[in-house]
What we know:
The complex is a heterodimer of chains A (624) and B (610).
Chain A: H1 2-13, H2 30-40, H3 45-85, H4 92-141, H5 144-149, H6 152-194, H7 196-243, H8 245-250, H9 254-280, H10 282-306, H11 312-353, E1 382-389, E2 398-405, E3 410-414, H12 421-428, E4 436-441, E5 444-445, H13 451-456, E6 458-461, E7 470-471, H14 472-476, H15 485-494, H16 498-503, E8 511-512, H17 521-535, E9 539-543, H18 551-565, E10 569-573, E11 585-590, E12 593-598, H19 600-606, H20 609-615, H21 619-623
Parallel strand pairs in A: 3-10, 3-11, 6-9, 9-10
Antiparallel strand pairs in A: 1-2, 1-4, 4-5, 7-8, 11-12
Chain B: H1 2-13, H2 18-53, H3 65-68, H4 72-129, H5 132-138, H6 140-165, H7 167-181, H8 187-231, H9 233-238, H10 242-268, H11 270-294, H12 300-342, E1 366-373, E2 383-390, E3 395-400, H13 406-411, E4 421-426, E5 429-430, H14 436-441, E6 443-446, E7 455-456, H15 457-461, H16 470-479, H17 483-488, E8 496-497, H18 506-518, E9 524-528, H19 536-549, E10 554-558, H20 562-565, E11 570-575, E12 578-583, H21 585-591, H22 593-602, H23 605-609
Parallel strand pairs in B: 3-10, 3-11, 6-9, 9-10
Antiparallel strand pairs in B: 1-2, 1-4, 4-5, 7-8, 11-12
Amino acid sequence: MSDNAVKQQTRSQGPRIPGSSGPGEKAKDFKGAIKKLLNYMKKYRIALIVGITFAVLSAAFNIFGPRILSGAITELFNGLVMKNAGTGGIDFDKIAGILISLALVYIVALVCGIVQGWMLSTIAQKTSYDMRKQISEKIHRMPVGYFERNSVGDVLSRITNDVDMMTQTLGQSVTQLVLSTASLVGALIMMLIISPTMTLIAIAILPVSILVVVGITKFSQKFFFRQQEYLGKVNGQVEEEVSGHSVVKLFNHEDESMGEFNDTNDKLYDAAWKSQFFSGLVYPLINLVGNMGYVGVAVLGGLMAFRGSITVGDIQAFVVYIRNFTQPITMMSQVVTQLQTMAAASERVFEFLEEEEEVPDADGAAVVGGAAGGSGGDVGRVTFENVRFGYDPEKIIIKNFSQDVKPGQMVAIVGPTGAGKTTLVKLLMRFYDVNAGAIIVDGNEIRTIRRASLRNDFAMVLQDTWLFKGTIMENIKYGKQDATDEEAIEAAKAAYVDQFVRALPDGYNMMLSEDADNISTGQKQLLTIARAILAESPMLILDEATSSVDTRTEALIQKAMNNLKAGRTSFVIAHRLSTIKDADIILVMNEGDVIEQGTHDDLLAAGGFYADLYMSQFDTLEEE
Amino acid sequence: MYNTTVKLLGILFKDKRYIPLIVCIVALLMVQAYCELVLPSYMSRIVDIGIAQGGVEDAAYFNSDEYAALDADTKAGMQRDYMTQAALMMIVFTLLACVVGVVVGLLASRMSAAAARRLRREAFTNIMGFSSVEVDKFGVSSIITRCTNDIQQVQMALMYVLRVVLFAPIMAIGGIYMVANTGAGLSWVVVVTIVMLAAVIGTLLGLALPKFKRMQILIDKVNLVSREVLTGLLVIRAFNRENYEKDRFDGANTTLFKNQLFTTKVMSMFLPFVYFIMNIIMVIIVWVGGPAIDAGDLNVGDMMAVMSYMIFIVMAFMLLSVVATMLPRANVSAGRVMDIIDTESSIIDRPAAELLNEEREFEGRVVFDDVCFRYQNADEDMLSHISFTAEPGHMTAIIGGTGSGKSTLINLVPRLFDVTGGSITIDGVDVRDLSLRKLRSFIGVVPQRGVLFSGTIESNIKYSGDDVTDEAMAKAAEIAQAADFIGTKEGKYESEISQGGTNVSGGQRQRLAIARAVAKDPKVCIFDDSFSALDYKTDSRLRKALAKNLGDATILIVAQRIATILRADKIIVLDQGKVVGEGTHGELLKTCEVYREIAESQLSEEELNK
């Protein structure tokens, strides 16, 4: 399990290439995704409009600046000419006036720029916070089935990667898009005002720049894909060699492993530098185009100044505008790819947020059992009445199951692997609802009980040992948050894990790593048992809880469990039949349905499926 | 940022061959800077000549008497020629700048990719040298991320260092030089600009960097909590802990949000400030330049050239500041990669001179002499004072409860861990006095999990080396009871095995792992609870085949099933790290309480009394 989880995670988080010119994935419905996103951000719409307005303003002021400056330069120049001609001099007062107003314009532009930056980043970050929060809360409202159909890695990557991707793009791209467009349009207008003739240069630059950017992006994409592919291979190899690390070493296989790795590594190198190089070509080439524009402006400007049809200041202004002209094109091409990726990411996030949820608790749903402080003789009584169920309503697996379980009884569920032994438990805990019939717990039909109250009645130990990153003490206390350390240690002793814990570095305060892979599976299982013991619920569910514990420890746990089970209704899923011989009721399952039910002796006497199953254990010894 | 740059360059300089290349890149960047900076000076000449026509006689030649003597047409012709020439030069320089830019891009891409390749190779080679202690310390998923994503980050950052970070100071110095060259006395403006830029970049980065550094930790935290919620869904619901988990997530989410909000806000001020500085500098230039022009100390064209230089310089710094935001992450990544490369394995060979038994043929008598073992930082010994002998030709079994230290015990023999007290000898030689290669060459181990590698059945059985012949492979498969199912496969021994062996069943995986160990023809063969995935019948046949074919080898078996070890020559019973019983099944039933308990839980009454 933990291995799979690691695999899924590394795969989904996979090697992602940083940098902006990598190819993005495409959204299935770009417009739809953007529309949904905008709709999602509705509550920030005023802030968004203000932010964009300020962005446009700051761009406009920045664009208008050079034009004012050109006035000052022209003034300077004209003054000089007049001075040389002896008809006057430079009007420094006028120039000072222009420069002061210009400085003011730039200060306003700065303020606008800062305001827009703050507003847009706040909106982006708030949106991503909202989304993460919503996803995380959504998880708890969704039926368990969803997570059985989808991998952990998939959901995880929606919460982190996809949301992250969206935030970054929202913050940067929106600003860039607004600023670039404003600069481009603004610069064009200013250039047209200054000199329509010279604007021709800018208009000639535009298609060339677009061609260069689009061409290079397209061309370098295949190298990016190749790099991605080999990164994936390196990833796979490292994973394989590291997870089988001790075998590699024990078989003296290091050299061969390294040889294989080096091969892939070389191929990755090849794809990596090519993708870097080709995508990087955009910068010198765009620069070339920009510089050509600059040369054009210089020559044309010089000629026009020569004829006196343009002022010197205007040439200077034009130089600034033409510089401002190529940059937005590179930026916009990046923004387009980013927006695509953002749409794809938001599509996945919304897809998740729109998934079907569990049926909410009925109004006035009851509180039962332990939570209600015990309501008489029915606490711990479980009745299945003509239960009919299928994960897929078209494919019913449990056809008609009835059983009355009295308080304190032990119910064992047995059957071969894949027989659907956990199905009953999942129905009991209302992870799924029955298609027909009813399950009655503590005298109430479970659909009329609050889920929280129902589940509070059960303590559960699963085959998949789940512990979280935290100390051992915190993990044991998970079942009962307000438990004292002493109670937790008592529970650990009852689960026969106390001795082991004390041998660990830091004992009960030892931090379990993610997946708790710094202790063995058996030990993990013991901790989950301690957790269940501490929870003190009136009913117990043990799902192959002892499968990864060796028989000697199992025997010890059985003893602890027997104490724990006393007075508690328990449901035990087991594959070792020796452990459930004493069960009050044994339910034998095969192919999803309950096919036999009764006590051990009854079932043996009946000579059916159970009897076969039981006898098969002793085959070898008889043979020897 | 300075530190990061130095660290990243350090990665490059580690390979001495790169030094000339880096020098070359710096030289090329200087050429590129020159090409770009020279453009405005041509521009200024063109403008000045244009102005000259308007009556300002200030370009050197055109000021001369000789020029004044020419007639108007010739003047105009010369001016046009001069302008054409200047324009051509501009085109030449701009082309040159482009070509140099492409070459720099090529060198930088290749160098950064090569550095990444080297890091990956070094990391992987070192990982291959790790003992289990180091692998456990890092964890599999962390090692994978470090070898892929982290190195990728470093590669990207190197690329930027070579192309952008080095370029900015060159551009700045070049800019100062060019401005000084105009003789306009405006060099100080460049210095002021750079100081202002540095102050802004420094302040903003100073504010944001600490938060940037925390970012990855906070993202990991969100990841971790979400992942735990997802994997523990059933448990969370069963214990009604949804609200607790929501709070836990919200805590992580809020911290991340605050951190991200702060950094993005700070970083969003970058561009407005840089533009502001650039613009305000223009104002200053005109402010200061005006009187200078009036006094005849400065040409209008020169002033315009200075303004253009400023744009170049500011742009170079702007790129620098963009890169500055990604360098901290790369720095963390580089540190994580270096952690792997710098970690030394805790289990290594003695110096070659002290390895005296490398050529010796071993029989395989394994003696545990007062062996103690304690995990790092543990308070108590995992194993204490274990002594026993496993004889060649005999099967020695080890049985005991979970956490009793069975697996640890046998992992000490091939030195996956080293003893912390006492010694393990093979034929009288301490295992630590042998090279790992030699030691492991005659020990066959079948691990608890049947780990297979992607490839074919053949490549897996012949995993110990190419000296395993096809006959040996077939024999090993036979012994491991794997021949039957291999025979039913379409590709026989060439059948594909997917990564982790997921395309064969657990039992088949286990049998292939056994075949792999047997194919080595080991002197000491260790089975770590390797039979649990097998059904009882196969288990029994396998043990018979092993007894027959590995007759001379020392066999060590860790088992949970009594049936598996019933016929062992010697059974060692472990309980909480100590030996509590030693003998045969029959003897132990009578003498050892712990053994009896285990037996009772597994065998029927009749079996026990047989």
